[in-house]
Every structure is written in structure tokens, then in C-alpha cells.
Amino acid sequence: MTRFRFVPVAVLIVAFALGACSSDDSDSATSTPKGDCPTAPVPVVVSVDQWGDIVDQLAGDCGDVTTVFKSSSADPHDYEPTPGDIAKFTGSKLVVVNGLDYDPWANKAVDALDEQPTLVDGGEVVGLQEGDNPHIWYGPQFVRDVSDAVTEALKKIQPEAAEYFDGQATKWDAALEPYDAEIARIEAVAPGKTYGATEGIFSYMAEAVGLDNLTPLGYRTATDNESDPAPGDVNEFEQALADGTISVLIYNTQTEGAIPEQVRAQAEQNNVPVVDVTESVPPGIDSFVEWQVGQLKDLATALEA
Description:
- By secondary structure, the chain is α/β, with parallel strands linked by helices.
- The protein folds into 2 domains: 12-173, Nitrogenase molybdenum iron protein domain (Rossmann fold); 179-304, Rossmann fold, CATH 3.40.50.1980.
- The protein has helices at 12-21, 26-29, 49-59, 83-87, 104-111, 122-125, 140-157, 162-175, 177-189, 203-209, 217-224, 231-242, 258-269, 288-304; strands at residues 42-48, 63-69, 94-97, 118-121, 194-197, 212-213, 248-252, 274-277.
- The strands form 2 sheets. The protein has a 4-stranded parallel beta sheet, sandwiched between helices.
């Protein structure tokens, strides 16, 4: 299956050297308290934008948050950091990565630093291992687990602002109410409903709301390994869409290629609702909640129909 790819702009070892050796001016930039924060903000780097807004909300005025990868026009799996990206890690006190081999370049950048920051690895937080589905931001409980870990890390780094960080965590929990409401709406109509998916990025959410995954196993295995499914697997998928076995198709719009487009065309031809999802935050979307709620509403409408 063809994927969007970034073109490397520099040899990675040079990038790591630049990140490790560049001068650190972050202390002067973040030494003055801002807004409601009682202390200087903590320099924070987040590897990918799926977690960027979450960390920004949790840190508030007491965090100076930089997100490295921001793009829905390319596949994050294939991302190659620039020297400038690697340099962003210099001076950080907290680094938040997705883990599960999703963003290994971020771990390498941290390892190259002279002064090691606190590291929150999402995969480790939620108890998964390399080889497991890395798209953990689609797991409602995983989102809360990682959020809690970030708050605890911030409190340890800046204990004078612990009360402030607790307040931000409470605000974040309140901000998730529309997200929780859409999940509950889907749970109410999910019994007996099934789905197929062109890729497995949405699997944790689909499982959480109670949908049964009827994507053919061979197709699933191939896409999980970033290879093309066998013709027989594609045919089995199309047959399930044609005979009404699958209630809704989950379609990753960040993947290009003839096979997912063929599967989508089959769904549309047979009046199977198609719900578009993205792997990273789309342009024009300002928050994690806005991104997720929009997709969840589309799914709820499709299932109710």
C-alpha cells in the first residue's frame, strides 16, 4: 500500500550532533513566569501532534510546549526529522513521545542530549509493547492514562506549581465531556453493529465503543505490516461490504493507493456508510477534542442511519 513519504533533508547523525551541541537559550526564554503560573514555565517537547494539544492543555501557562511533527498530509510512520527538528529537544525538561516504535527518532534525539529530560513514553504508560498497535491516542482510557502521567511528570519537575497543574488536569477532564458524550452515544447504538477498516488506526476506539471488527484477517495483517493485501483478502473484504455483513467502513484519508480506494468504492456502491478518520490532526482543527468529536459524530450518525 503506497504511503506519503517525507524526503530526508540531512543525514540523521548530523542532526543528532546539532541537537546535542547547539547552544541552549531556552532558560532565558522561559525564566519569567507568565499568566497564572506561579513559576517559570517548564520547557516541554512533544514528538507528534496527536499529543501536542493534550500536553499544552495540561501544562497551561506553566509549560512552554513545542510539538515537532505537525502534518496530516504525510504518514507519521515515515517521518524523517530535520536538523532543526532535532535541535528543538535541546534544553527540554520534559519530552512526551508516543512510543511503540511510532516515533523512534524522538527517543534518539533525547538520547543524544547531554542533559537528559524527563521522558513520558505513551506506550510504556499504557502497558503495551513494541509490535502492538501504536495508535494509542484512539483509546479513550489510554488518553486519560497518558494525561495523568504528563501531569505527574510536570509536578515532579516543577513542584512549586503542583497545585496549578492539578487545576489544569481538572480543566482537561472537563474539556473531555463532549468526547465522552459522543462515545456514550455510539455505545448505545453499537450492539450488533460491525465495521471494516482500510487501516487499523481506529481499532482502540472501535473496540472501546463495542463495535465488532469484520475486516478480513489477511487484509488486517497486511496493512498492519505496511504491505499490500492479497487479492483474495481484498475480494473477501469487498464481499462483506456487498452482502451487508459490515455496517460501516472506517477509512484513513492519510493513506493513498488503489486498494483502499477500491474498497471505499465498493462500500459506496453498496450504500455502506464511510467514516473518514485521520492519523494526525487535520489542518484547521485546533484541539484534540474538536478533532476526535468530529469523527465520533460522523460515526454515530453512520451507525444510527
